[in-house]
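Sample 1 of the test manifest.
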Amino acid sequence: MYELENLRRVLEKAEAPLSSAKLSKLLQQKSGKVFKPVLDAEAKAGRIYKWAADLYWDKNPTEMARERLLTIAASEMLPGPKLNALAAAESPKIGLSLVRNARTELLKENLLREVGKAKLNVNAQHPQQYLELEIGRLLSEFGIERAKESIRALLGATEAKAEIPEVAEKIFKAMNRIAFAPGTSVTFYRLRQQPELAHIPKLVFDQAALRLQQERKVFLAGHGHALSLPKPEQDELVTDGLGAYYVSICAL
Amino acid sequence: MSQSAPSSQARIPFQVNPFTNIAVGSPWTEVPTDVTRINDVAFQLLWRGFLQTLVGSDPISLIVTGQAGSGKTHLLSRLKKRLEADADGEKPWYVYVRCHTSARTLWRHLQRTLANDVLQSSRLEQMVTADPKKLGKARHLGVSRALESLASGRHTLAAGAWLRGEPLSDADLAALGIGVEKEEEERSRETEAKHIVQALLRLLSPTPVVICFDQVEALETYRGEMDGYHTLGQMVAELVNGEHRKLLLISCIVSEYEGNLEKLSNKADRDRWLQGTATLKPIEWEPSVELIKSRLDSASGLRADRAKHPDDPLWPLEKGRLSDLFDKTGICLPRTLIQACRLEFDRLMGDVNPGPKISREDFLQQEYGRLLSNARVEWRKVGGETVLEESLPWLLQNSGMTVLGALENSANYANLAVRVSAGEARLMFCFRPGNPFTARLRKAVQFWSGNPELRILSDASIQPRSGSQGARYLEQLKRRGARQIHPLPEALAALQAIRNLTATARAGELTLDGEEIKEDEATKWALDNLPPQLEELRDELIVKVPDPEDTPRTELLALLNRHKIMEAEAAGRELSLSTEEVTSCARRYPMHFGLLEGPPLVLFEAVEGSEAQAANA
C-alpha cells in the first residue's frame, strides 16, 4: 500500500514528468524496465498520468493543457494552430494532439471564442484585450477617435459597476453549478478555481460571498483555526476582516 | 443571547435537565430525541444510497460535511435506527468507525471496529452455526477458525480478540488452531488486517453492510498531515472495488477539513470516495422550536406543568432568550441551541448550588485524566506499536521534529522516518514478543546499513532472551549504532489520551459551559503539561548521543518486568552487576523503578495508577 503512496509523493514533488528509470531509482525499485508495467497499470487505473511513452506524473496533462490555453489566450489573441503550438511547447511539453483536443473542448464550452476572419482565440472570461481593439475599431468606423486609455477606463468602469452584486451573482451561480447536489457545500478553494471567478480580487470576492450570507441566500461554514494556517491556505478562505474566516459555502 | 442574573426563585422544580445531552458520542448510544425534519435532505441522500445498494450491484460512497455541532453523528444514529426498524428483508450490518487512527494503522482500526460491531450480538455466531458451510466464503483460514471457535463456544474470548486484531499469546493462537507466526512469515500487519476485513465482508455478503467513517479529520495525526486522507481514499476505493457489492460507505468530516478531500491527487480514488455529498446546515427557527419541544416533552417531571401551557410549546423556556441566537443569520447550529437551552433550563431551576466554576485548564486536566484512565487499560489491547504509529507523530511534530512518514527505502524495517535537528532518523516499533520481534530485528540487520540513525522503541518486558537469535540481531544492530528506547507504559497511555483529547477538540466536541475548546488550546495545554514519562521519551528521541548507562537499565527493566519485585542483591547476581550498580541505576530512573530502602534493599517495577490494575488484570 505504501508503494503507491510513495509513488504519489515522489510524483507530487516532481517538477516535471519522470521516466520509469528515474522513478525506479527514486523508489529504489529493481530497474526501470521491470517497474514500467507497474507504472503503466497505475496510469491505466487513472491513479497517475502518462505524459509520453515513458513519462509519468500525478498531474493531468489535459487539465494542464486547458490552463495553458486559457492563460495564453487571456494575454494574446492568436489563431488556433499558433495557440496550440505555444501551449504544447511550454515546459513540460504536452503532446500537440492532446492540446488540439483540449482547445476544441474549450471552444465547445464557450470558455474560448474564435473571433474575426482570422479566427483569433479569445479567453471568454478575460476579453478585455479583444474588446479594447473591437471598440476602438467600431468607434473609428463611425469617425470617432478615442485614446486607448479612455476605452480601457470604459471597460474598467463596467467592471467596477459590476463588482460586488455581480460577483455575488457569479459566485451563487458557480456554487450551484459545481455543487454535488442542490444545497451541498462547495469550498472556496474549489470555487476560486472556476474560470469566471479566478481573476476577481480577493477583497471583492470575499465581500460578495459575505453579501450572499447577509441576504440569507447562502450559509458560510466557519473555520475555527484559520490564524494558525500558513498564509497561502489562509488566503483560500473568505474573511470578513474582523477575525471570522469561512471555508465553504452552500445554498440555503 | 441576552444575559441576566440567575433568578433566586425557581420557576420549575429541580430535575434532570433534558438538554444535558449536547452531543451524540456514538450511534451505539441512545439518542434522547430525534426531529426528523432536521437534516432531512442529508438523511434522504443516505437512505437513497442505502436503497440503491439493496437493488443495485455497486457499492456507494457518500460524504457528509458540516460544522462541528451540526449533527453529523446524530445523523448516523438516525440512519442506524431506521436500518434496524425499516429495512426490508435481512437486517443490514452497521459498522461505526471513529477515525481516531492514522494512515499507517487504518486497516487495523477498521478490522477492530468491524469485528467489534459485528460481534456485538450473537448474530454472526448464529449465522455460522446455522450454516457452517458459509465459513468457506471467507476464504481465510484464521477468520474461519476464529468463527468456528465462537460458534462452538470454545475459546470465545481469544477468538473475539483475534478477530479484533488484539495481540494474543502463542498458546491462545494454538488453541484457536491459528498458526503462530514464524520468523520468516513476517508480513505487514496492515495487509493482514486488510485480508481479515475483506474475508469478513465476503462472509457477510450478500447482506448489506453500512460502514460509517466518522471524524475523518482525526486521521491527521498532526495538523496538516494529508496521508490519512490519501489512505482512506485508497481504502474506500478498494472496498468499492471489492467483492461485497452491497456496501454503503459514509464518511463524515468537519467542514473546515472538507477542502483536503478536494486536494487529493489521486483522481480515481477521489471519484470512488466522493460519489455524493450532503451538507448539514444550521437550522432555522421553526425546526428549532420542534427540537426544543421534543426535548422538553421528554422530561417527565415537566409533563403536568407543560400541560397547563398548551399554547406555548417552549414553556418553561422563554422564546425571546433563544430567538436572539437567530438574529444575525436566521439560523443556528443545533448544538449551540441545545447548549443555550441547557443553561436557560438550569437558570429556571433556580439557585441550586452549581459548585465553583471550573477553569478551562482544570477542565482539560479533568478530561485528560478521564481519557488517561481509559487509555491505561486500552493501550495494551491495541498494542504499543499501534499506539506509537497513531500518536507519536503528534509528539514528534510538536517537539520540533518533522515526520517524514513511512519512507520506501526503509519501510521494510522502520515504522516511521523523522527529521531531527541532527539529521534523519528511522524509528522501529517492537511490541510483539517472540518471532515477530526477532523477524523485525532480522529485517533491520538485513536492510539498515547504519545510516540514518535507527531507534528501536520496544517494550522492556519482551527483550529477546540472552543467547537467542533475537538477542544476537539486537547486539549486531547496537554495534552498528542503533539505540534501543523503552517507552514506559504510562508514556504510551498518555500519548493515546492526548491523541483522543486533541481529536475530540478538532471535531468540536470539547466544550465547557457551551464554549468550545479548540484543538490549538488543547494541544498547547497538553504540551505544557506533558507527563514526565512522555518528556523522557521525547528527550530520548531528540538526543543524538546514546546514554552510556542504557544497558543496565534495559536489563533491569526486563528483569523486573518478569519478577515485579526482588532484592537488589539478587537482581545484581542475575545481571552480573554489583548491588551498587543496580541501586544507582534504579535511583537514576525513578519513573521506571521503585526502591525500598532496607536492609535488604528491594527493587520493584514502578507502575502508575490504574495501569497497575490493568497489569494485574
